[in-house]
Amino acid sequence: MEIDPFIFRLSIFILSIFIGYYVVWSVTPSLHTPLMSVTNAISSVIIVGAIIAALAGTSESIFNTSSIFGFIAIILAAINIFGGFLVTQRMLQMYKKKKDKKK
Amino acid sequence: MISANLAAIFYLVSGILFILALRGLSSPDTSRQGNYFGIAGMIIAIVVTFLSIGNFSSSLVYVILFLVIGGAIGAFIAFKIPMTAMPELVAGFHSLVGLAAVFVAIAAFLNPAAFNLGNVGNIKLASLIEMSIGAAVGAITFSGSIIAFLKLRGIMSGAPITFSGQHVLNLILGIGIFVLIFYLCKTQSTNIFWTVIIISFLVGVLLIIPIGGADMPVVISMLNSYSGWAAAGIGFTLENTALIITGALVGSSGAILSYIMCKAMNRSFVSVILGGFGAENSTDDKKEKKDQKPVKSGNAEDAAFLMKNASSVIIVPGYGMAVAQAQHALREMVDKLKKNDIKVTYAIHPVAGRMPGHMNVLLAEANVPYDEVFELEDINNDFANSDVAFVIGANDVTNPVAKTDPKSPIFGMPVLDVEKCKSVLFVKRSLSPGYAGIDNELFYKDNTLMLFADAKKMTEDIVKNLD
Predict the structure, then answer these.
(1) Whole-prediction pTM
(2) Which residues in A lie closer than 8 A to residue B69 (C-beta atoms)?
């Protein structure tokens, strides 16, 4: 009997939780705020679902009920992607070592 | 147009890049590179999605248009937001992820064929379960984050809102969601699907309103985690590896942060969720006690004198510093002290501020090098060997009661051993208790000098007196 593809996805999911567990524990506490903003940005990869939904409209009806939800989701996710990565970048630029400074 | 297999490989690559993005945050040196990995992963995921659809009809123009609109809004916010407002920003962003998850789930429910999930009224069972869980968690994340946002922004009072039967109601609604999902699978009814979403919105609100301001670091971390699980739920629906990996990463990241925050307050996760902490009760008898005990108070001149004659100073910043926007003035003060060959370090309690790492970002913004900033366990032994502790905007995290009085609500919470310093300067507007609603014993110690003023103004005055 073949294994259901769902089981494969579940395996990826469970293993990723473990990866996440170990990777996040190694994040230095002083970077916990950038951690939150970057996780915010990457979880907006949900935009792939929004794009599929938005492009599913036919040429006669670009905006049907389903694709409208897709389009709105694109805006929401895009705000998050750009906002999340840029604000993380802005924060990380501020973390400097003592040596970097001129006396 | 590329094949589904090739697309899946690329999604895997982008998932790995996201892992590397988080890995980079293990040190500030590698963190910027990590962020680029994250951006690369996102670009790959988006481009591959376009390529795998290959249907470059006129819809594409609108997709790009909306992408640009959203991106412009996001970029605008990212550049304009002051660092003190990071907690609200993160809460706001969580709500967007949650809502996006809900909308993608709705889109998939209304047009399952576009996602290869079957047809309307005959959606694959597994997909239906996954999308309704994704939608429910997304909806809870959305409304919960909105409440957290309003509380952090001060639009809504930070005081917990409780009423009798609250937890029973939450439990009933929670069970109701599962029952409805069960019936949804049997009937494929659109109405039930909408009901699940509406109830989930309600649960999100009810879940966060009883939680007080002091527990906000836990709430934000928790919502971070939820947004991850919502993304993972949608990832299963869309059979998308990148989304599943990301969801799992974000979910566990938020969970770990919640755990760290709970531990730093010595509170169990359950008691935070049940809420009600920090409610103003029995403040009357505390006021009486306060009047009886003598307090030494001083001015900026005294503080400057004490610090000038010290050889080592430890700064303990808290949320009050953020509110008063005193971080730049503080940095100026520290520069002057350093010129006099005084050793200055910063001690940060894990729950200082309104979100994990909040103080570190503010200090970084004020150009404080990160290797002068220490976490609780790394610096706590140094207080005994230091001359002056300068507490600015922190309160409960310095309260010795947590170590001495088993009856205190914060007993057992790890605190900074500020009282071991030769002298303590405590900048505070009044003697009012902190969020835990309890009096700080530190105020009445012989070696404590209270500086009653706004944190920023006091720091600026001290700077003037240091010349």
Answers:
(1) 0.89
(2) 75, 78
